[in-house]
Design goal:
By secondary structure, the protein is of the alpha/beta class. 56% of the residues lie in helices and 18% in strands. The protein folds into four domains: 171 residues, no CATH class; 114 residues, Beta-Lactamase (2-Layer Sandwich); 158 residues, 2-Layer Sandwich (Alpha-Beta Plaits), CATH 3.30.70.270; 244 residues, EAL domain (TIM Barrel). The chain contains 29 helices and 21 strands. The protein has an eight-stranded mixed barrel with strand order 12-13-15-16-17-18-19-20, surrounded by six helices. Strands 6-7-5-10-11 form a five-stranded mixed beta sheet, sandwiched between helices. Strands 1-4-3-2 form a four-stranded antiparallel beta sheet, sandwiched between helices. The longest helix has 55 residues. The structure holds ligand C2E and calcium ion (2 copies). The site of one calcium ion has 4 residues, from loops. The site of one calcium ion (CA) has 4 residues, from strand 17.
Amino acid sequence: MTPVAVLINVIAVAGLAAVLRGKGSDTFLFGWMAAVTLASVVGLRGWWHNRLNPKLTASRRAVRRLVLHAAILGTLWGLLGLEVFPRVGTGEQFFIGMVVSGMMCAGAFVLSSLPMAGTLWTITMGGPAGLALLLTGDPMHRALITLLVAYMVFIILGVWNAARMLGARLMAEAKADNQHEVIRLLLRDFEDQASDLLWEIDQHGRFTHASRRLLRQFDVDEAELTEQTAVELIEARIPDSPEARACWGRIGQHLASGAPFRDLVLPIRCANGVRWWSLSARILVDSSGAPMGWRGVASDHTDQHLARRRLEWMAHNDPLTGLVNRTTFRERLQELLADGVRKPFAVVYIDLDGFKQINDELGHSSGDVLLQTFGDRLLEGARRDDMVARLGGDEFALLLRQINSEADAHTVLARFLDSLTEPCPVAQRQVPLRASFGVALAPRDGHDIDTLMRKADLALYTAKHQRGGGYCVYHPRLSEHGRRRGLLESALRLALELGEFRLVYQPQIDAGTWTLCGFEALLRWRHPELGEISPTEFVPIAESIGIMPRLGQWVLEEACREATSWPSHLSVSVNVSAVQLRDTRFLASVLLATAPIAAPRIELEVTESALLDDITGAVATLHQLRRHGYRVALDDFGTGYSALSYLRRFPFDVLKIDRSFVRDLLADEEALVIVDTILAMSRALNMTTVAEGVESVEEAEMLRARGCKVLQGFVVSEPMPGRDVLSFATAWANRAVTRLHLLAAG
Ligand code: C2E
Ligand code: CA
Ligand code: CA
């Protein structure tokens, strides 16, 4: 304001000079004019000096100088009034009054940013003016003095008030500046450190602010970043996946419609590989509401994304084998069945045979290897559309597409079985992979999951129980079996209490002398409606529903009770099932049940399957039994896989040659060789051999000639009720006529 103020001063001085010239002391007037002009120009000098780059700060000295300058100039103006006012006419007095009041108000206003200068200016100017009014002695002027004082007070208050407001504003501005600076620094720091990235694009779609992290992520420099639009930059970095394209599409819709968005996760190929960015943004508008661009945050969600993916994967897959799990399998099945089966497919249930044994013998990690290898083999056998699942434990399942007929199923399953022929190397051993497969065909065998799964399960059950495992395709007959099995299960639970069981006894004779040496006790069950049920059918069921230990105990007790009435040289053989042998209370229960007769008269027959699951435990039990004097027989010898290895593990007293070899003896050269081998071996191991199922005199003669010790079969007698045993024994001793005796008689 300095030049304007100087100009005003000069104009006022010139005006006064024109009005007052010749009205009093011209010497004073010109001296005064020179003094005011000089004082003004001194002020102008400082301004001139700094006019090109105005200073934003002022030193205390400069302020003091300004205050002093104002006081001097004010005093000069005051002097004018004091010297000239009382001596001139009313017209001139009016002129001087106008000029002095005007200068006083305007000057104070201009000086309000320096309140002390404004105050001194007002006082030095107004004080002499009041004195001048007093000196005229005019009563009206006295009244004016009061008014002048009131004005001065008012002006001074106004100056201080304005100064206070100005100061407050300057302080606020300084504070805001300071805050801006802090925010800018924080942002910088944040952009460098945090996983979040702030971004802003202008109305042309270009990034307005290139943070260092953005440049690094996109692997571009600042020029490249601003050459392209944000959309072009990102689009070139979207991976080629349907998921990525779908998300990019969603973001595109928001950008087009101007609707804000939150947490849309977009994969972008960045300098360090694909990163998943969670994007949130809203549109920026100017004061008229026109769009100005977008501002938002991008946070790196890669870790969370991968963790979520992993969780999702775990929800759908089996972590051990990497195959899909039961839930996914069922979901997929549900999808295929959803609106009617258009293309036929097959559901296959699979059970790994003998898994428990391997797990127990070789440890869990070996079991895991076996499961993994098995899963891999299934995957090898599967086609692209097929699904391989692990349902849990050693249960697996397949979903086979494009199976139009049973013949298709046979072809595909043969391939799966083929992929299992190679054994699996586990813990320095070659473990054979054996599994049973149960197949159900959709839509032929059912239209809903549960029916199909049940039928596949039924087929699996059949496959497991047919000799040699393999696979079985569901057939309505199996359902018949299933129903029957259900009936038998519930009936069996009550059969013991209802007294539906009984024992029959089949004689065994010495092959050399044809004297009777004992009986095998065989269990019989008569179902009230279904009639006689074979033990080959109901014993496995009794085992699976857990009543076998109790039933076996009953058989032992019953057989021993019966045998007490027999001549003491006759032995009694009792069949012992696998589950009995596994029972820890087995030895105690045998001791209890067989108490009535001497242990050496009792022979316990076990099959290989009884040894399969837990060979170490079973062998320990058998040793204990032998120590108590019982004889132990290996039943059905020759039908299992590794019969010889069991002979090494336990010294059986008796080997029972399976009926199937005896049956083929006359017709089949191979059967003859096998029987010969068994006989030679048992001689070497000092074991007694019993031939089972001997039906003809020719077979009996042949077995005797080759060294078999004991014969059992229809040729001697069919199994008989206990009450007939004694009369049979007497008749046999008296050589009552049988076919065998006829032969012996020649
Ligand atoms: P196994 O121990 O091999 O019993 C011999 C089976 O062969 C008996 O069938 C018997 O009736 C039959 N058999 C005897 N001589 C001949 C013959 O000359 N020709 C033919 N074709 N068959 C003959 P059964 O009584 O039906 O028993 C079948 C299987 O049931 C038994 O086979 C045995 O494994 C099991 N079993 C029977 N009773 C019991 C028992 O009390 N406990 C247990 N755990 N299993 C039993
Ligand atoms: Ca037997
Ligand atoms: Ca047998």
